[in-house]
Amino acid sequence: MNIIDGMKTKVLLFGQLAEAAAPEMEIFDVRDTDQLVQEINKRFPALSSMHYRIAVNKNLITENTTITNTTTVALLPAFSGG
């Protein structure tokens, strides 16, 4: 992996997402959540067909969000209430 500026983002995966990829990974040199998802889908194609929510620093997001090297991102499997 070519590290341009050394920025890395910690990514946590849960449930079926962790089973399909890994429970934790580091992704290098991405600036926002859209880029992060693209990189994850390249590494783990099985995730591209799965539905999940993204949390940035423990907050669920609904739009592209800037990330830094201190950001923790979590991919949460789809869940339903009841």
UniProtKB/TrEMBL annotation:
Domain of life: Bacteria
A Pfam family assignment: ThiS
InterPro entries for this protein: Beta-grasp_dom_sf (IPR012675), Mopterin_synth/thiamin_S_b (IPR016155), ThiS/MoaD-like (IPR003749)
Protein name listed in UniProt: Molybdopterin synthase subunit MoaD
Organism the protein comes from: Hydrobacter penzbergensis
